[in-house]
């Protein structure tokens, strides 16, 4: 399997294309997910990221009639989906590996599953907080920050396991981490956020993928600040086309981002979400062309279960 950094090095300045998909809700048909991304395969994505989701606490009435909170993983299957993706589309799969909901030992086991599948890329993340808790809490025996998980993967790459007394056969994971052009919600300041990002790179991260942004100036400033803070690894822009008017508030709240005034005004003039979707495509094309001219290594799209708008952008950009 090719490493993300190798793809970038081999591209010789050409801008590459990749996508992120989300596992279906438990009980849904995996083929629907594959059909939804099929139109994107024409544009030959270099790799497909597959997100990982922790369990959520659900209230259920137990046998004794009392309400019980039970942990349910609503979107399981990241490792299995990666295996099927590679087999069906002959594309490299990049699983996300998260701290939330896992002990270090459970994480080690997941990393071995990935290693045995021949997967050499992982995107290492802290993970979202459990929904009912609101703030992130590590599982007992698990990691609190993505940097600690980066350390664990780097250790495995050196043949160091959690409990083994002798050196193990080393893995060879290329490690990606997340970066936030508009600052991570929990960070007290940009400076602190850059310092934490630098720490992840110092511990072994090979590249960064950004949170989605709709204003390229935010990405350009982020790259400048990363470089000023000594972060030299590739910084891959994460993009999502605006698809509905509601997303103006929902995405802003969930992902802690600001929409450019021009995009907001144009979206507000739209009379239907179909028009907003078209506007999102035009805006996405404009963003991509500017990012390519700037020299980004790769354009990474969050598909969020729909691919028609990403396919339209790709057909006008690549
Ligand atoms: P961290 O790097 O650990 O940072 C989290 C916060 O802690 C930041 O504010 C940082 O500044 C701060 N911090 C870091 N180290 C320290 C320290 N030592 N002391 C004090 N503060 C510190 N979530 C999922 O659940 N599943 C996914 O598959 C998933 N995929 C994603 C993909 C991308 C590209 C992005 C951008 C996000 C993704 N997320 C996913 C969301 C992500 O898990 C959340 O944004 C999470 O809140 C932070 O993750 P992180 O890896 O950036 O965390």
Question: How would you describe this structure in keywords?
Answer:
single chain; 318 residues; alpha/beta; TIM Barrel; eight-stranded parallel beta barrel; two-stranded antiparallel ribbon; 11 helices; 10 strands; binds flavin-adenine dinucleotide
Structure description:
With 318 residues, the protein is an alpha/beta fold. The protein has a single domain, classed as TIM Barrel, CATH 3.20.20. 42% of the residues lie in helices and 18% in strands. It is built from eleven helices and ten strands. The strands form two sheets. An eight-stranded parallel barrel has the order 1-2-5-6-7-8-9-10, surrounded by six helices. The chain is globular. It starts with a helix and ends with a helix. Residues 51-53, 96, 98, 125-128, 145-147, 178, 184, 186-187, 192-193, 196, 200, 209, 211, 238 line the site of flavin-adenine dinucleotide (FAD).
Secondary structure elements and their pairing?
Layout lengths: L3 H7 L5 E6 L8 H12 L5 E4 L5 E6 L5 E6 L5 H12 L2 E7 L5 H13 L4 E5 L20 H12 L16 E6 L10 H13 L4 E6 L3 H13 L6 E5 L7 H9 L5 H9 L3 H22 L3 E5 L5 H10 L1
Helix pairs in contact: 5-6, 10-11
The structure holds flavin-adenine dinucleotide.
């Amino acid at each position: 399997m090719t490493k993300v950094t190798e793809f970038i090095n081999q591209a010789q300045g050409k801008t590459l294309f990749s996508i992120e998909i989300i596992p279906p809700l438990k009980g849904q048909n995996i083929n629907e997910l594959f059909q939804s991304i099929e139109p994107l395969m024409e544009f030959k994505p270099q790799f497909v990221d597959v997100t990982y989701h922790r369990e959520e606490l659900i209230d259920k009435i137990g046998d004794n009639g009392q309400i019980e909170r039970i942990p349910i993983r609503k979107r399981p299957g990241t490792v299995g989906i990666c295996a099927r993706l590679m087999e069906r589309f002959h594309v490299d799969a990049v699983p996300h590996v998260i701290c939330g909901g896992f002990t270090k030992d459970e994480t080690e086991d997941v990393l071995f599953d990935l290693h045995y599948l021949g997967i050499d890329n992982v995107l290492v993340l802290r993970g979202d907080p459990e929904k009912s808790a609101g703030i992130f809490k590590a599982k007992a025996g698990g990691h609190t920050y993505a940097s600690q998980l980066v350390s664990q993967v780097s250790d495995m790459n050196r043949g160091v396991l959690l409990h083994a007394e002798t050196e193990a056969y080393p893995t060879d994971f290329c490690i990606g981490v997340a970066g936030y052009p508009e600052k991570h919600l929990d960070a007290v300041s940009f400076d602190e956020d850059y310092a934490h990002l630098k720490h992840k790179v110092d511990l072994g991260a090979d590249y960064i993928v950004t949170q989605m942004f709709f204003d390229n100036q935010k990405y350009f400033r982020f790259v400048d600040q990363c470089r000023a803070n000594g972060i030299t690894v590739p910084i891959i822009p994460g993009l999502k086309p605006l698809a509905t008017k509601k997303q103006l508030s929902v995405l802003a709240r969930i992902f802690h981002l600001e929409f450019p005034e021009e995009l907001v005004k144009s979206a507000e003039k739209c009379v239907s979400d179909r028009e907003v979707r078209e506007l999102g495509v035009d805006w996405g094309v404009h963003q991509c062309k500017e990012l390519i001219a700037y020299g980004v290594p790769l354009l990474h799209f969050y598909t969020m279960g729909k691919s028609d708008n990403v396919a339209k952008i790709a057909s006008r950009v690549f």
